[in-house]
Amino acid sequence: MLYTLIHEPSRLGLRVLGEFCLRKEKMNYLIFLLSVSATWSLAEQPNILFIFTDDHAPHAIGAYGSNLIQTPHLDRIAKEGMTFERCYVTNSICAPSRAVILSGRHSFHNGQMTNGDVFDGSQMTFPKLLRKSGYETALIGKWHLKSDPTGFDRYEVLYGQGSYYNPRMKKNGKEVKHVGYTTDIITDLSLKWLKQERDPEKPFMLMSQHKAPHGRWEPALRHLGALDEVEIPEPKTLFDDYAGRTSSAREHKMGILEHLGDKRLMLQYSSQFTPEQFKVFDGYFRPRNQAFLAKREAMSKHELTRWHFQRWIRNYLLCTKAVDENVGRLLKYLDESGLAENTVVIYSSDQGFYLGDHGWFDKRWMYELSYRMPLLVRWPGQVEPKSKNRDLTSNLDFAQTFLDLAGAQADPKMQGSSLVPLLKRNKPKDWRKSLYYHYHEGGGHGVARHEGVKTARHKLIHFFDKSEWELFDLKNDPDEMNSVYGKPEYAKVKSKLLQELKRLKKEYEVPAIVYESHKEIQAERNKGG
Questions:
Q1: Residue among 142, 165, 133, 152 nearest 193 (CA)
Q2: Where does 262-382 show beta strands of DSSP type E?
């Protein structure tokens, strides 16, 4: 009875509370009040289900207005909750984004500045603080931080990037192997933990984290051919010539035609298939690959770009289709089990992604489409359905948001702000007006290291290794085609953004060492022990 009151404060919970009151008429009144108070205090700790993907661009989600594919289950979260329209990443690359979410601190403070770094699991993270507040924590799926997860009662994670089929996973320190489609397997394991393995007397935090839709893009067998008859709309910037920006944009190595390559388009496969899987998978792709190779030499550059775009974007979208289906499986279980009423469901991805926009297929840039990340939140009874938020928010805020939901204290070193007031439509008067960005890696896909500041309307980017600056007016130029840095009419805007960039670097205590090469940074760390 008490479990129902604590974990399911729904209509059923209210009915049980009424029965509880009637049965306790002769109870000492003070003891009764104390017991009810304790019960509802515990009820304020909701369960948290965090569903996280890799490289899922907001413009491949229906709730964000996508015309590329339908995502009914993700859209359901938006319809029953809040869509954050201006949520941005601090560093648009996989491992650093994940480390920021765990630690609530910028990359230069948590130590995970690039994909090559090893996450220091001894530092304070939000899962550790949740456990101290009575939560049971679990992480299932993609980890990508090289060290073993800490702060979790249970974890089962992919080795490295993982594969789309038959993944190897590490379960609490030991290797296990699975057969099947990885997106389905991660959900199977998540459901198993929810149904059978967790302690039902504790609130939970489950991080169900997918490899999809990261490359190489291999759809589930059930989806092969599902978009063959669909001509995916080309982005209007597919044939961008980068004339309106600095050399940094032109020197990219993430072009749909030039750099995506036949290997990524599945003229070679990345997964280790079972014979049965290979027969179906190769049986679908091999004849299509052979037909393309037979005509490739006769195709013009524009024709080749369009062919590559259609082949790739279909595979990408079908990987997201499997994610959406599996989100639906989790939502269905929450409904059927009665957990939905007291579970906050959060969907996000580690950064945005280019879907042929500007002729690109990757991330890293502070330009809008890799900088912006999806964030959908459903919190029954607390978040207004179909609500939208346009405040500047960040993955830097996630840790403190999780802790605030749980009624737990954040670590004083955390640098974000809880989103709970925004979820409750109670925005603080001093909510931020700008965001700081810093991409550390350098060289990956030809993207130069850079930092910058963003406001609701403007964005200033500094490619500090190249001494190049760009300034964009997002109201007049939402596609960021033409930098207005140096134009007289934007002199005041430029001056204000330069001052704001300086202020943010001071606020976040950006160390001078981050402007050195990564090799020099590592040497400095090693020198310090």
A1: 152
A2: 343-349, 375-378
Sheet strands (E) in 133-287: 136-141, 154-158, 168-171, 174-177, 204-209
| Amino acid identity for residue 243 in this structure | A
Distance of CA 291 to the CA centre of its chain: 36
What confidence tens digit (pLDDT) does each residue in 63-113 have?
A: 999 999 999 999 999 999 999 999 999 999 999 999 999 999 999 999 999
Q: Buried b / exposed e across 364-395, counting CB within 10 Å, b at 16+?
A: bbbbbbbbbbbbbbbbbebbeeebebebbbbb
Q: What are the start-end ranges of the E strands in 29-115? A: 47-53, 82-84, 87-88
**DSSP β-ladder status, 393-394 and 387-389:** unpaired
Nearest Cα to 421, choosing from 454, 395, 397?
Answer: 397
Place of tokens 């304020």: 44
With a cut of 70, say whether residue 181 has pLDDT above it. yes
Residues 2, 371: Cα–Cα separation, whole Å: 45
Structure confidence by residue, pLDDT tens digits, 316-335: 999 999 999 999 999 999 99
* Angle, in degrees to the nearest 10, between helices 182-192 and 301-337: 10
Candidates 353, 454, 442, 478; CA nearest to 394 is: 454
Nearest Cα to Cα of residue 397 among 344, 368, 436, 365 = 436
Q: Are 459 and 439 in contact (CB under 8 A)?
A: no
Beta strand spans in 258-392 (E): 343-349, 375-378, 387-389
Q: 117 to each of 34, 209, 413, 464, how far by Cα in Å? A: 50, 20, 21, 21
Phi-psi region of 357 (alpha: psi -120 to 50; beta: other; left: phi over 0): beta
Angle, CA 494 vertex, CA 361 and CA 465 arms, to 5°: 50
Residue 238 makes CB contacts below 8 A (sequence gap 6+) with: 256, 305, 309, 356, 357, 359
- Please state, in angstroms and rounded to a whole number, the distance separating the CA atoms of residues 439 and 525: 19
- Helix 11-23 × helix 29-43 angle, to 10°: 160
DSSP E strands in 146-267: the ranges are: 154-158, 168-171, 174-177, 204-209
Q: What is the DSSP letter of 221?
A: G
Residue 404 CA from chain centroid, whole number = 20
Reported as type and span, the H/E element at residue 36 is helix 29-43
pLDDT of 265 > 70? The answer is no
Locate 87 and state its tokens.
Answer: 């949520």
Strands in 435-439's sheet, in edge-to-edge order, are: 435-439, 450-454, 458-463, 468-473
